[in-house]
Amino acid sequence: MDPRAADLLGRPIVGQLGFVGLDGYPHVLPVWFEHRDGDVLIGSPAGAYKGRALARDGRAALSVSTVERPYLIVSVVGDAAVERLPEKERIEFISAVAIRYLGEVKGREYLEVWSRGGHPGDGELIRLRPRKINFYVS
Amino acid sequence: MDPRAADLLGRPIVGQLGFVGLDGYPHVLPVWFEHRDGDVLIGSPAGAYKGRALARDGRAALSVSTVERPYLIVSVVGDAAVERLPEKERIEFISAVAIRYLGEVKGREYLEVWSRGGHPGDGELIRLRPRKINFYVS
Predict the structure, then answer these.
(1) 3-state DSSP call for residue B23?
(2) Quick one: DSSP state of residue B20?
């Protein structure tokens, strides 16, 4: 992988997840994600729209781009699997991701509300296996 | 349309265009756009990948979201047509869009380079007709 792509995937920039919706149309949603061991990992509540759509058609894309010019852009296209994420692993994953995006202090505040007294319940993990990763500057 | 959706589409935030690529996979690309008369308009060089893909399958999405929490998100899903954009109209459109995103001074600087001495040639206009516009806060 282009090291500039890996660098951009490591920055706390919201990812843009593309998938085919249950209506057959492409959809794009901003998501928190983590790039780990070559996969793009996204947490989701159980039964959410994106998880249901991806369980039906796992083809997906994730793009990350900077807000200002020159736009640095990384575009991942690949196959997503939707896995059950038991409560304990879910708390670990969402904690890591919230702190990645919000920092330690605001991340902890977020998690306090999110975790509903420590019992957010099970969730889902969307695991996107890249087939192609492109980096470009626009 | 929810007035908060119209407001967000009017801000100079890069849009995230979702479409089905020539490989059959969803793709997401950051684009400058303008929301005009109910349509989402995107300029493109002639023969670019997104235009070729959308000419084959016009189903598309465009999302806009704020960079910081609370994330305000507008998601447009609809049908795109790819129209030829003659040089004169192309210059007008790209000028409006560059100034919308970069402001008057930086927009003019951008256009100076972009227009290749006033003759950028013909291009394409991607016209996305919304079927559904959703606004939400995350």
Answers:
(1) coil
(2) E
Residue A33's nearest CA partner among A59, A49, A14, A18 is A14
The structural domains of chain A, with segments of one domain joined by +, span 3-86+124-137
In whole angstroms, give the CA distance from residue B12 to residue B88: 24
Q: Is the peptide bond before B70 cis (omega within 30 degrees of 0)?
A: yes
Query: How far apart are the C-alpha atoms of B84 and A103, rounded to whole Å?
Result: 46
Query: Please, what is the Cα angle at A91 between A85 and A93, to 5 degrees?
Result: 70
Q: Which of B43, B90, B69, B50 is nearest to B138 (CA)?
A: B69
The reply to whether CATH 2.30.110.10 applies to domain B3-85+125-132 is: yes
For B18, the closest of A23, A28, A138 (CB atoms) is A28
pLDDT in tens, A85-96: 999 999 999 999
pLDDT tens, B4-38?
999 999 999 999 999 999 999 999 999 999 999 99
Q: Which of B26, B63, B67 faces A20 most closely, judged by CB atoms?
A: B26
Chain B partners within 8 Å of A30 (Cβ) = 16, 63, 65, 71, 73, 138
CATH number 2.30.110.10 given to A3-86+124-137 = yes
Q: Which residues of A touch B60 (CB under 8 A)?
A: 25-26
Contact yes or no for A76/A126 (Cβ under 8 A): no
